[in-house]
Design brief:
Elements lengths: L1 E3 L7 H9 L7 H20 L4 E7 L4 E7 L4 E6 L3 H10 L5 E10 L5 E9 L7 E5 L2 E2 L3 H10 L7 E10 H10 L5 E9 L1 E2 L5 E2 L5 H6 L5
Amino acid sequence: MVKNIGKNNTIFNQFIAEIRDAEIQKDSFRFRRNLERIGEIFAYEISKELNYTVKEVVTTLGTANVPVLTVAPVLATILRAGLPLHQGLLNFFDRSENGFVSAYRKYKKNGGFTIQVEYSSCPELTGKVLILSDPMLATGASMVATYKELLISGKPAHTHIVSVLACDEGIEYLKRNLPKNDYTLWVGAIDDELTAQAYIVPGLGDAGDLAFGKKAE
């Protein structure tokens, strides 16, 4: 299931517009903050899909019955680009355990690339809800490799995959490589084109570089 929350006219699309804007992108602080705010909105939307238990809360004047999360989801992201988006999710799911995976494109001399996973740290996932985030879903290969790496820590009851910008090719790759009942994909916008270098068009560029500075060649 794909849920595109950018389809509706809300303030969410203001943040999408700003992370795409080449002029606004020059301010890396604002870029990170916008990704964080986008993560908070995703967290709110995903929270509607989770399980709740009624808790009796004692106030200074009496008691109130309030539905609260039964169990906080586990949050995981791909280093380094995913960190601001992850922080936004964590701002709302502030009791969550966290997982991190280092996955990157290793380019071949004759063209093309493979996904290299070098490090992962994750709590036990068996039977839990997992929210896995990365700002861009281009080819989908990084997301699938990361998901499979996380399965070493156990099989989640369900996984919510969060990508700010996705393209059709990446969505189709997930459909071919992940069991359809195991995950829900949440996106902010879906673009049609993927370049020969596997960048989304119009996209926004390299989210990691825009957030944290360019990597050494």
